[in-house]
User: Fold this.
Amino acid sequence: MGFLEPEILHPVDAARLAFIQELFHGLVRATMLGYNIVEPLRLPQLSVLTEFGDDSLWFPIPGMFGGFNLWFEGNGRDAVLWAESWSRMVNGSGMRHRITPVEIILVEEGFA
Assistant:
């Protein structure tokens, strides 16, 4: 491994990662529309999560006063993304989604 190459601690199949990322980006855009946030935002590349092992990534959304906490569960072809979102300004705004390459499933809501 080269000096600047990332160390993959949580491997995810490349095609699976790409499909999951597309669905997650759609979820973020839909959430932003729900909060009337129209400013452009650079969405995260989920490949960075493969370098974290079992840790999560916090992705704030300006104007939402909150954002998304993200982590992968499983490895390789079995990996799924978990995304928890909430807003400090909206009581009961918490939502937890399970994202696979083919679907987004709302697992829980109203917890924050």
User: Anything to note?
Assistant: The chain is about 20% helix and 30% strand. The CA atoms of residues 64 and 83 lie 16 Å apart. Helices lie at 14-34.
